[in-house]
Amino acid sequence: MSKKEVIQKTGKWLVVSLIFIMALRITTYFMISESAAVTQAFKTGLRVILTGVCILLCQKLSSPRDPVRFEYRNILPLFFYLMYLMLGIASLMWTSDVADSGLQIVMDIECVVFVWYYWKVVLLLNTKAAFGARAPMSRILWVATLIVLMVFTVGVWIFPDTFYRETHGGEVARLGGFIINPNELGMLIVVATAAVYMDIRERGKASFWLVFAWIDFLYCLLLTGSRSSLISFFLATFYFVLISGNRKMIVATFVAGIAAAPVVFMTIFVKQGDVEEVMNMTGRIPFWQDLLTYNFPRRALFGYGFMRIDELDKFDSLHSYAGAMTHNTFIQVLLNLGLMGVFTVFTQMWMTFRAMFREMRIHANLFHLCLGMFIPLFVNSLTEFGIWGETNYGIMFYLLIIFMLVLHARRGKVHLTPAQT
Asked: Fewer CB within 10 Å, N or C, the chain?
């Protein structure tokens, strides 16, 4: 085997490695055991290992004989995200629980480091011509998610008690079990579905595995019973159909969506015929009203500390349930970092959108992938942890969007020293 063939084979193995690293990273946000100590040890240990692997890969792939120059464009989204983290660190001085806030901020910082090095490895692999291998981020995302979801697809038939979560007094079973919140699992599925659409767009056709992945994703999404994720699925699907420019497909998709809407509403959105539950968003609206009425005015400027919404571990709502998080990422920021946090977060998001639309003129596919991923992240953020909430893989995907917009690479000129020649 020639040296060139060895290098190209190495490139193929790197693509596989990137897929499995992403798949394993996703699993670090799952509950693998009912023991909190075991789960925390698994999450922490595997995340640190995966981050370390990405750092080592980045160092190994950096070669003076085939240099790659990293360039930062649209730096403001990253700058304001780091400002948000700095505000979170500062909040340790006034937080209602230093240990809880400290753990959350450390996990978010580690996630930044992981995504930074992971994206650099992807850029190095795709930029170095010697490898002869490409790893589009869209392909990495959907393949990695398919690997994870196949476990759920098979597991739900073999171990239904583990992979199903019973709600509404045991009358409704939702995919996710104790392993992951069904709404969070639904968000992951829609992010991967957007990646499938993007890969089809880049290839110009749908392969067998892309169709298989899409069918499995839709099957699992319906099993989660997640209303918010189903909404984001339709939005992402309609978006990619619209930009396809195929008029027949656009008309067929909208007709199918309108025809399916009544059935979907009565089977997924209205559970056990309880329309009132839908109208108050499963008790979230009265919970938000109590938070904004009683807790927000007490610490309006700087909040209760990073990921804290009350002086106690849970806010006991007068008109709803008791909760440790708000189920809305923007209200979460308002409570834990106050008006200063909200200003920082909305500025960061504005800068991200500005960078996204700037990239549209340079690299349209990058724009479509980022926007396609952002749709489920944003919808999920309105009712769950979200991109500014407690540590979840929604934060990781949002950071990936930021780094895809900010960090770019191109092949540099070779400068060899006399010793290297």
From this structure: C
Q: Which two tokens stand for residue 173?
A: 């079973």
Place of tokens 């730096």: 75
What are 164's strand-pairing partners? 175
Rounded alpha-carbon distances, angstroms, from residue 121 to 26, 125, 142, 408: 18, 6, 18, 11
Render pLDDT for 375-394 as a digit per residue (tens, 0 to 9). Answer: 999 999 999 999 999 999 99
Q: Please write the tens of the pLDDT for every residue from 335-353.
A: 999 999 999 999 999 999 9
Query: How far is the C-alpha of 27 from the C-alpha of 30, rounded, in Å?
Result: 5
State how beta strands 315-316 and 322-323 pair: antiparallel
- Look at the block and give the residue holding tokens 């900010």: 406
Task: Write phi, then psi, for 371 (nearest 5 degrees).
Answer: -70, -40
What sign has the CA pseudo-torsion 339, 104, 22, 166? negative
What predicted TM-score, i.e. pTM, was given to this entire model?
0.93
The residue whose two tokens read 């209205």 is: 270
Q: Rounded to whole angstroms, how far apart are CA atoms 46 and 41?
A: 8
